[in-house]
Design goal:
This protein is α/β, with parallel strands linked by helices. It is built from 10 helices and 12 strands. It has helices spanning 19-28, 46-58, 78-98, 115-135, 156-165, 175-181, 189-203, 205-208, 238-248, 262-274, and strands spanning 3-8, 33-37, 62-66, 102-105, 108-109, 141-144, 152-153, 173-174, 211-215, 217-221, 224-229, 252-256. The strands form 3 sheets. Strands 6-4-3-2-1-12-9-8 form an 8-stranded parallel sheet. Strand 3 (62-66), helix 3 and strand 4 form a beta-alpha-beta unit. The radius of gyration is 17 Å and the shape is globular.
Length: 275
């Protein structure tokens, strides 16, 4: 499987705003992937999940899911940690019915804790989630996402360490987030290659042949991410990013999170195909 391009959520041009309509519109656009956004909560029943999964299969569209935003495995309140685990489990269970391979989520906030303490807590909680999923025969991959602000746990190394510690976990690399939280780094061919090289060295072929990327332009300041931007209205050197992807021969999904969704997804796909 080469790199497949798609949108984070139903394409803007889809007249039918349902998940089924989104899948069909992705095929009409000649894109190949769709990330279903459960960011406000998992509000999809089993029957609908089967239907969406079937339509995706018929149209040869690769699906992924983004779990709810309200996840913090380093909360000071135990009930919030428990609720965070439940939200990941809920998403993973629907993901299995959908035929989804990956569930993306933001793992934690740092609060006043060191990276080592947060990592230990995130690993402990995700290990519990993984044990439950494994007992249910659910092989969906959990994808902690690289985050856009220093207050959030999830720089590149932290995200890789989670994947090294917990089986069935691989990173979702959000290039815009890494660019934002580093205050302007990670935006050249060599720096994109650095990201891919570090991750490939750390996780090997199980990652190289099954990557999950988020790509968009991004506005950022001293504290990191402010908002996503269309690629051409940002400083993102997306052509160099695609060149780096070719250099490393990565396979998997590249999900566009730009405000103009499918326009930029198609732009990235075109650059990838031409190169």
């Amino acid at each position: 499987m080469p790199l497949l391009f798609g949108t984070a959520g139903v394409p803007l041009s889809s007249k039918d705003r349902s998940s089924e309509g989104g899948v069909r519109r992705i095929r009409e656009l000649n894109l190949d992937a769709l990330e279903l956004e459960f960011v406000q909560g998992v509000r999809m029943g089993e029957e609908k999940a089967r239907k969406v999964g079937m339509i995706a299969q018929e149209n040869n569209i690769a699906l992924s899911c983004h779990a709810p935003y309200y996840i913090n495995l380093n909360s000071r309140e135990p009930e919030k940690i428990s609720a965070s685990r439940d939200r990941i489990l809920q998403t993973a269970r629907i993901a299995k019915i959908l035929g989804v391979r990956s569930v993306v989520f933001h793992p934690a906030f740092n609060h006043d804790n060191s990276s080592e303490i947060v990592l230990a807590r995130v690993v402990r909680e995700l290990s519990l989630v993984r044990e439950t999923l494994d007992a249910e025969g659910n092989e969906v991959i959990l994808r902690p996402e690289t985050t856009g602000k220093g207050t959030q746990f999830g720089d590149l190394q932290e995200t890789i360490l989670i994947a090294q510690e917990v089986p069935g976990v691989l990173p979702c690399i959000d290039f815009g987030h890494l660019h934002a939280r580093s205050n302007g780094r990670y935006n050249s061919y060599d720096e994109f290659c650095e990201i891919l090289d570090i991750t490939a060295e750390s996780l090997g072929d199980r990652w190289v042949k099954n990557v999950h990327f988020h790509i968009s332009g991004i506005e950022y300041g001293l504290k990191g991410e402010k908002r996503h931007l269309p690629l051409r209205e940002s400083d993102c050197r997306y052509e160099e990013l695609i060149k780096a992807c070719h250099s490393f021969g990565v396979d998997g999904l590249a999900i566009c999170e730009s405000p103009n969704l499918e326009e930029d997804a198609l732009l990235l796909q075109k650059v990838y195909t031409v190169q």
